[in-house]
Amino acid sequence: MNEIWFRTGEATVLAAEGQFTDAMPEVLIGSVRGPVGQAFAGMMGQVQGHTRMFVVRDINQMVRPATMMTTKATIQSLAYVELLGGVVQAATGDAIVDCLIDGTLPEAMADEICMIVMIWLDPRCADHAELDQADLYRTNYEATKLAIARAMKGEPSVETLIANRRNVKHYALDGVVDYE
């Protein structure tokens, strides 16, 4: 397989009714010797409110390819950190290993590439009395697998984006912009 230099992907998997567990990871995949590797190494410090950590499935089980995760939302509480470093990290790790198993990520290149995953964890999760942690796992697992697959396949393609320009619009544009 050719060297993987710089691939990006994203996905959204929506929460179950009444939950704030939508998952929207953004993934960057590339060679440890290229710009992704440099960005990865540059993340080896902490930024207040945006914890960075290796993705591990459990204690002493760091995933391959080496993956760094960070948040898109500012961390405000220990409960948020526990969800991020617990259920969300485990779901992300499981998805990465399953991508190796199913061939989405090339096993032979697991030590030649690295990944950065930006995680959306809704701040309301930390204080939600009826938080469904199984749904939090589900959304993050499914979205991470999908984002990685899209990155590896280059999806959506330029052709798809052009073909959908007038019939797909951002949800925030409802009532703002009329494409017709």
Automatic annotation (TrEMBL):
Pfam families tied to this protein: Fae
Domain of life: Bacteria
Gene Ontology terms describing biological process: carbohydrate biosynthetic process
Assigned keywords, A-Z: Lyase
GO MF assignments: carbon-nitrogen lyase activity
Domain Formaldehyde-activating enzyme: 8-171
InterPro entries membership: HCHO-activating_enzyme (IPR014826), HCHO-activating_enzyme_sf (IPR037075), Ribosomal_Su5_D2-typ_SF (IPR020568)
The protein's name: Formaldehyde-activating enzyme
The organism of origin for this protein: Jiella avicenniae
